[in-house]
Amino acid sequence: MDKELHQDKQGKTKVNIVSLFSGIGGLDKGFSDAGFNVIWANDFDKYAVQTYQANYDNKIVLGDINKIELDDIPDCDVLIGGFPCQAFSMMGEQRGFEDARGTLFFRIAEILKDKIQKGKKPRAVVLENVRALQTHDNGNTFKTILNILQQDLGYKVYYNILNSADYGVPQTRNRTYIVCFANQNAEFEYPEKVKLKETMQDLLEQNVDDKYFLSDRILPTILSNGSGGYKAKSEIDLPIARPLCATMAKMHRACQDNYVTQKKKVRRLTPRECARLQGFPDTFKIPVSDCQAYKQFGNAVTVNVSRAVAIATRKTLESLGEWK
User: Fold this and answer.
1) What's the CATH number for 3-196+302-319?
2) How confident is the model over 46-75, as pLDDT tens digits?
């Protein structure tokens, strides 16, 4: 990770983190910025791991978390993870736990149970997922998750929906954040919203390669208000971006993805602009193809939101006397 983040301002030993479903490290960077120490991370996508390794110096393991031995996952003070959301997303079929990806929450629970049995229960757990997680299957999916965390694993659980646009990033991106504490005396408050000072236009690059501009042939399709039975208002040059999605490379329509006007022509966002809309600094390296980069930033956790949640989590641990 950024070298300057390895030393806490007070010179304290940092609280150690294990990160699951790390992707390109949006959640990890936010917690690192707040003074936590990521000691182990995991993702099954080789291209995401490539990007992660290009930007951080802590260990990330490439592989299916279901196939990694429990003993190979180190003990930690805090476990974090933006577990796969396709099974619950409004953009997918919303099959939830019927989808193999949905069952990955149970792997998180299995890892936590193993740590508890070994007397190494993480002091806190922070999970991120789509907004629709709370309403999927009339709320039954979320109820199951809460019951496992509270009743089976013994955590005090808080949850809320946070929007990236409320934390300094001009992107409408509502996500469920679940924050859990082993100490039942824990009192946690979600971070306060901050006034948005930038628009998407403020984050645009000025010298953009011609490949990002739309051809006259495809322009009518991109700017259409939908087709067939799907109708939605086509809008471009929005001050606050639509939610970035993993399918941006496919160029859907202006009613789904973000398009801007520059030099009197319409273009899609560049990967760097997508990085900025997710709170990554311009020093963040993008070593993969545009196609992979769009997927990675579309799947990423917004760094600004992650950092705000991490700071709030740290405050609670400090109040409990559990910050090393």
Assistant:
1) 3.40.50.150
2) 999 999 999 999 999 999 999 999 999 999
